[in-house]
Design goal:
The structure holds 2 protein chains of 2 kinds.
Chain A: E1 5-13, E2 16-17, H1 32-42, E3 47-51, H2 56-72, E4 77-80, H3 86-95, E5 99-102, H4 104-108, H5 111-120, E6 125-136, E7 139-146, E8 151-156, H6 157-167, E9 171-176, H7 188-197, E10 202-205, H8 211-219, E11 225-228, H9 230-233, H10 239-248, H11 257-260
Parallel strand pairs in A: 1-3, 1-11, 3-4, 4-5, 5-6, 6-9, 9-10, 10-11
Antiparallel strand pairs in A: 1-2, 6-7, 7-8
Chain B: E1 2-7, H1 14-25, E2 32-37, E3 48-51, H2 57-65, H3 70-80, E4 85-88, H4 90-93, E5 98-99, E6 105-106, E7 113-117, E8 129-134, E9 152-157, E10 159-163, E11 169-174, E12 178-185, E13 188-191, H5 199-211
Parallel strand pairs in B: 1-2, 1-3, 3-4, 4-13, 5-7
Antiparallel strand pairs in B: 5-6, 7-10, 8-9, 11-12, 12-13
Classes of the chains: A alpha/beta, B alpha/beta.
Chain lengths: ~260, ~220
Amino acid sequence: MLKVRVIPCLDVKDGRTVKGVQFVDLKDAGDPVSLARAYDSQGADELCFLDITASVEGRGAMIEVIERTADECFMPLTVGGGVRTPDDMVTMLRAGADKVAINTAAVMEPDIVSACARKVGRQAVVVAVDVRRSTEDGEPKWGVYTHGGRRPAGIDAIEFIRHVVSLGAGEILLTSMDRDGTKEGYDLQLLQAARKVSSVPIIASGGAGNVDHMAQAIAVGGADAVLAASIFHFGEASVSEAKMAIARAGAPVRLARKDKA
Amino acid sequence: MKRIAIVDYGSGNVRSVRKALERAGQSVRGTVSTIVTDDPDDLMSVDGIVLPGVGHFADCAAALRSRSGLIEAIHEAVFSHGRPFMGICVGMQLLATFGEEDQITPGLDWISGSVGRLRPSSSRLPIPHMGWNTLLEVSNHPVLAGLGDEPHVYFTHSYAITPKETQDIAAQTDYGGSIAAAVARGPLFGTQFHPEKSQTVGQKILLNFLNWRPG
């Protein structure tokens, strides 16, 4: 049976992790590769690196981070941030990434999704959708945002997801910008609405404050994977604790051998 | 000293495959070295061949065929000299008679069968089949030895091989129906999943491959 995935996410700027990571037993938590190694040994199902660097020099640093991680962590890696073209995608895949997330470029020019899928296969194309919630006639609506969640695109998120899936997106990384950093839990209604229109896997992101939130995203929201950053980085929960909470909610997870006993 | 060639025909995560093989090779008696190549001459002197591949079946098949003498060299190394071969993902699918991704494209036809789109019994199951799934019905093939109970490996694909002969299936997985997770025939071995991304289980499979001497 296919297992639900738990995915720690690392924000990387100029080749260093940001957000003042405090990781247990880690000498250099600012080094994304050290952090990746720690999550690898915790049994993370996948890792996500988001490049928040603006400069071209920082971009090169990101490629090096992917290479160094892929050289020693034999697990799936997703990388996002600043990817504009199919060739950018190929560069990241050749560095050792398995999937590449596109965000702003997919909103500006949705056909880029088809071009990327044709070039590298749809299984490698993740569309990262950042949304903010509003209410219309008492019903929740979600709008797409770009540029790291700062700029409204004036597009309905659910329609956008339907569209990019039809164009060749292989996965949706769905982030609630309202919930991001609040620790109030994932936006379950958003996940449910997206699930209805998406035939590809959905990764829930934004709002994880405890492991039960992750279980809810799966059991109630219908997500295929959960992504979280600070809850893992600050040692508030381990990957295996998250998996055990998801298992208690009745969803299948891949437990490390030591967790089974 | 064992030398393994990773065929680089412009498709696939060559770097990860190489690094994962080298790591697994640290547990092999003697040393293991890898070369990344598309030169047919290189394949005549190696002890094993790995063919990765991601993306579109037709594109991968065209890329492989565009390199003059490459397929013939793989064929000779494997079938005349009995060198072990491992295909990964689309690199495995290419062993089939043909692929049905968008159009009918001939494969190598070294394992009779076709590569078709996944059709899980429940329409609620997302495609691609993406993530960690359990290997089932694991055969006693040497490359799959010692994986422990319920081994999990990483899949990411929308198409899968259906071998004509069921004995060519070395392991299965379930995703709204059975999928051939690994195939084997003589010196040929192939995985739909990614051993180079499957943590300790993947490392064990690569180690087994390095130690494998097809009979």
